[in-house]
Amino acid sequence: MPFPVTTPGSQQTPPPPKHYGISSPISLAAPKETDCILTQKLIETLKPFGVFEEEEELQRRILILEKLNNLVKEWIREISESKSLPQTVIENVGGKIFTFGSYRLGVHTKGADIDALCVAPRHVDRSDFFTSFYDKLKLHEEVKDLRAVEEAFVPVIKLCFDGIEIDILFARLALQTIPEDLDLRDDSLLKNLDIRCIRSLNGCRVTDEILHLVPNIDNFRLTLRAIKLWAKCHNIYSNILGFLGGVSWAMLVARTCQLYPNAIASTLVRKFFLVFSEWECSYNPLKCQLIGYIFDIETVMSQSLVLLGHGQEIIC
């Protein structure tokens, strides 16, 4: 195996540091001891507001999602048998529950609901989801307040599972089976899908992409918890009322994390307000590298996310 040759007086050029987004970081400064102290004080300040869930409650959510995931797999096997698929396909047909929104981002608060997506293979129809799966949920003793909103812009089944409210969307992929390690960020999955499935997939795809684009997920999560609490206390956290919603705030915090990749939460909170108090919306629109979505801070007060057609990519 050949080894790199270094001539006298020469040095190997180190690889350029990775940067996130369309521009280089504003600062690569590492946190100081005072930043760490302030971050710990930030955590203690947030605790009384219920932004952190107890470990016991978190484990309860995980258990509920496992039960729901098992129900989905069981239901898809039943559908597969009713449609006379080969036994080899039925045994490996899969099916899976994905999460998105605040729970997937890791910033949900006590008592918050869970946004979920049921992903099924190509032989399972949307009509099956709103009939046989709905009926299966209705028979489950832990499911209460079950209702289907089939005609919504993004069709959904709403329910309360053992005291936790869950909204379940549905997407049928053009796959014979659904593997456990399926990555919904794969653009090829969008081929030949109807618009309702694309809309249903977008929540998971955006959430996963945000987590993929931040330098440090833990710093991002703590910063986002603080910013969301601030927005709610100032009554400007509401997509319905024309303010920013959860995904929009997450994008703004993610961009701050990109600009200060080595900073920790206490610094990122301060930099968040510095960056966006001076942001020139008219000349410097903020765009995020998310397939199917474009984020423009200039028009975000009405609708921060505008759905694009399939195959269009936003450069970040």
Automatic annotation (TrEMBL):
<feature type="binding site">
    <location>
        <position position="113"/>
    </location>
    <ligand>
        <name>Mg(2+) 1</name>
    </ligand>
</feature>
<dbReference type="GO" id="GO:0005524">
    <property type="term" value="F:ATP binding"/>
</dbReference>
<feature type="binding site">
    <location>
        <position position="167"/>
    </location>
    <ligand>
        <name>ATP</name>
    </ligand>
</feature>
<dbReference type="InterPro" id="IPR007012">
    <property type="entry name" value="PolA_pol_cen_dom"/>
</dbReference>
<protein>
    <recommendedName>
        <fullName>polynucleotide adenylyltransferase</fullName>
        <ecNumber>2.7.7.19</ecNumber>
    </recommendedName>
</protein>
<feature type="region of interest" description="Disordered">
    <location>
        <begin position="1"/>
        <end position="22"/>
    </location>
</feature>
<dbReference type="InterPro" id="IPR014492">
    <property type="entry name" value="PolyA_polymerase"/>
</dbReference>
<feature type="domain" description="Poly(A) polymerase nucleotidyltransferase">
    <location>
        <begin position="21"/>
        <end position="214"/>
    </location>
</feature>
<keyword id="KW-0547">Nucleotide-binding</keyword>
<dbReference type="InterPro" id="IPR048840">
    <property type="entry name" value="PolA_pol_NTPase"/>
</dbReference>
<feature type="binding site">
    <location>
        <begin position="113"/>
        <end position="115"/>
    </location>
    <ligand>
        <name>ATP</name>
    </ligand>
</feature>
<feature type="binding site">
    <location>
        <position position="167"/>
    </location>
    <ligand>
        <name>Mg(2+) 2</name>
    </ligand>
</feature>
<feature type="binding site">
    <location>
        <position position="237"/>
    </location>
    <ligand>
        <name>ATP</name>
    </ligand>
</feature>
<keyword id="KW-0539">Nucleus</keyword>
<feature type="domain" description="Poly(A) polymerase central">
    <location>
        <begin position="219"/>
        <end position="281"/>
    </location>
</feature>
<keyword id="KW-0808">Transferase</keyword>
<keyword id="KW-0067">ATP-binding</keyword>
<dbReference type="GO" id="GO:1990817">
    <property type="term" value="F:poly(A) RNA polymerase activity"/>
</dbReference>
<comment type="similarity">
    <text>Belongs to the poly(A) polymerase family.</text>
</comment>
<keyword id="KW-0507">mRNA processing</keyword>
<dbReference type="GO" id="GO:0005634">
    <property type="term" value="C:nucleus"/>
</dbReference>
<keyword id="KW-0460">Magnesium</keyword>
<dbReference type="GO" id="GO:0006397">
    <property type="term" value="P:mRNA processing"/>
</dbReference>
<dbReference type="InterPro" id="IPR043519">
    <property type="entry name" value="NT_sf"/>
</dbReference>
<feature type="compositionally biased region" description="Low complexity">
    <location>
        <begin position="1"/>
        <end position="12"/>
    </location>
</feature>
<feature type="binding site">
    <location>
        <position position="109"/>
    </location>
    <ligand>
        <name>ATP</name>
    </ligand>
</feature>
<dbReference type="GO" id="GO:0046872">
    <property type="term" value="F:metal ion binding"/>
</dbReference>
<keyword id="KW-0479">Metal-binding</keyword>
<feature type="binding site">
    <location>
        <position position="228"/>
    </location>
    <ligand>
        <name>ATP</name>
    </ligand>
</feature>
<dbReference type="Pfam" id="PF20750">
    <property type="entry name" value="PAP_NTPase"/>
</dbReference>
<feature type="binding site">
    <location>
        <position position="113"/>
    </location>
    <ligand>
        <name>Mg(2+) 2</name>
    </ligand>
</feature>
<feature type="binding site">
    <location>
        <begin position="100"/>
        <end position="102"/>
    </location>
    <ligand>
        <name>ATP</name>
    </ligand>
</feature>
<feature type="binding site">
    <location>
        <position position="115"/>
    </location>
    <ligand>
        <name>Mg(2+) 1</name>
    </ligand>
</feature>
<dbReference type="Pfam" id="PF04928">
    <property type="entry name" value="PAP_central"/>
</dbReference>
<feature type="binding site">
    <location>
        <begin position="246"/>
        <end position="247"/>
    </location>
    <ligand>
        <name>ATP</name>
    </ligand>
</feature>
<feature type="binding site">
    <location>
        <position position="115"/>
    </location>
    <ligand>
        <name>Mg(2+) 2</name>
    </ligand>
</feature>
